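Consider the subject:
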Amino acid sequence: MADKLQLEVITPEKLVLSAAVDEVVLPGLGGELGILPEHTPLISQLQTGALTYRQGAAKQSLHVSGGFAEILPDRVSVLADVAERAEEIDYARALRAREGAERLLAERAEGTDLEGAAVKLQRAVTRMQLAGKQSG
């Protein structure tokens, strides 16, 4: 019986994280998925949100957006469109992105991609939350 999970978070550009962890919480389309060693095999689409993992008592978070997760009894492989560590997030840039997305949603101008603006807003809010936890 495995007592750890091998967590890998990969984007099209790079391997963001590879670590042995005790627990993973993923932002699945239907809500958060808590994964422990010996989890039943599963594939889930991801939504924008925070991926949290625990190593002993220490918890860390990453921002992920889009992609899929493959869960096996001893491994969690996350193939994300975007993944970044909290310390890599520029809070001021995320704030500007949030303001821009809010402006697009408020204006509701003809031809505006409202679904895309809503995703951008969620991405910016998640990034701000994670960056704020790092600085505070």
